[in-house]
Amino acid sequence: MMCRTSHDPGEEPDVGVADAVFISMLEDSAEELYEQAPCGYLSTLMDGTIAKINTTLLDWLGLCRAQVVGRMRFADLLTVGGKLYHETHFAPLLQMKGEASGIALDIKASGKQRMPVLVTSKVKTSDDGEPQLIRTTVFDARDRRAYETELLRGRQAAEEARRQAEADRERLQEALAVLQQNLLPAELPKVPGLEAASYYHTASPDLLGGDFYDLFPLDADRWAFFLGDVCGKGPQAAAVTSLTRYTLRAAALHDPDPVTVLSTLNTVLHERYTSGDTRYCTAIFGVLTPADDHVSVHVASGGHPSALIQHADGTADYLPTPGGMLVGVLPGAQFETARTRLFPGDTLLLYTDGLTEARTGPDRELYGEDALRAFTAAQPAAGPQALITALTGLLTGFGDGLDDDTALLALGVPAPLPTPRVKT
């Protein structure tokens, strides 16, 4: 009964409206409720012959009662696929359990259209348990089927987009791999009287870093080398790396003086990135001149960590180049130079700051230049490749403490082979 939420004490409630609603509802007969229900109803004999069907379902089918009752079976209302499913699944399930609920089927609606429905059937039995008839409810599932179809279409579109994204990602990775190969030498050249080794680690998830190095001939008697670090990571850094590498090579072939080469690179980077996103790098450039018993080294540094020399006697010292400015920031940058000689058993190590700025230990402290010098001095003076191998193991041991690109380049003069003793 409908009631008012508040009224004065003693006031009689107005039940006229409520009574009218109930009277109107009582005018619906059971037969009318059956015939005009918002779903389809039908009753069939145990063999499927339709004994009773409501108007709602007849309207969906586009048939009259005389065409259906006593003349058609429930399976006759279904599409070909629906009939097959009814015979192989629905009917056996109904026979075994006495009921089947929420089965998705298609009926042959008016206008030869397929109409998706959800069917629930239950067997009516006598007092002694004998099956008498099957009562079935048929719900219109067109909106649900449309939703499921749209959902499936969305899933298929999402899956296709995912596959396309994976394919695009693979193509991008291949392109980036080719680009990275073009930013570094495929292999170091053979230099008479000299050994060389290198290693490269990229911290970028796209395997594209901003560190670079190279070793190449200037003429018949001299070789040039460089190693550097572009600010940033990824494709943007790689673009600057490409410009830097080719500028250094071209400048060296024109005038190999280390300061002149870095000055040319400084001019190119400063003019190219003078507005907008400023880009710069650190770099060390040098020239090797082999002699009879040693190799002369002339280097210039632009804001780059000093090179380290592992001596044949088991010591290690830095080749200091303090005060060199970053390359590309100011139009008139100044660069520091240094000279040294490498004798048999000596190795010159160039590296980027990813090595010395790696985080170590529980306190995540910087590895630092002192630790690098101590580590290098502790290694046997066995040449560039042995030193690079030892440093590679060191970098691997840093784990996630190595979070920056790292490049290593080692150049050394081979130690003379020991002369075998001749027995007399």
Structural description of this entry:
The protein has 424 residues and is of the alpha+beta class. 36% of the residues lie in helices and 27% in strands. It contains eleven helices and 17 strands. The protein has helices at residues 16-26, 30-35, 55-61, 65-68, 80-97, 142-183, 234-254, 258-272, 353-356, 369-378, 384-398; strands spanning 40-44, 50-53, 99-109, 113-125, 131-140, 195-201, 211-217, 223-230, 281-290, 295-302, 307-310, 316-319, 336-342, 347-351, 359-360, 365-366, 406-412. It has a five-stranded antiparallel sheet, with helices on both faces. A hairpin with a 5-residue loop joins β1 and β2. It is rod-shaped and about 115 Å long. Residues 1-6 have low confidence and may be disordered.
Class computed from helices, strands and strand pairing: alpha+beta
| SSE order, one letter for each helix or strand | HHEEHHHEEEHEEEHHEEEEEEHEEHHE
Oligomer: single chain
Strand percentage: 25-35%
Structural features:
424 residues; five-stranded antiparallel sheet; 17 strands; rod-shaped; disordered N terminus
Please render the helix and strand layout as text.
Elements: H1 16-26, H2 30-35, E1 40-44, E2 50-53, H3 55-61, H4 65-68, H5 80-97, E3 99-109, E4 113-125, E5 131-140, H6 142-183, E6 195-201, E7 211-217, E8 223-230, H7 234-254, H8 258-272, E9 281-290, E10 295-302, E11 307-310, E12 316-319, E13 336-342, E14 347-351, H9 353-356, E15 359-360, E16 365-366, H10 369-378, H11 384-398, E17 406-412
Antiparallel strand pairs: 1-2, 1-5, 3-4, 4-5, 6-17, 7-8, 8-9, 9-10, 10-13, 11-12, 11-14, 14-17, 15-16
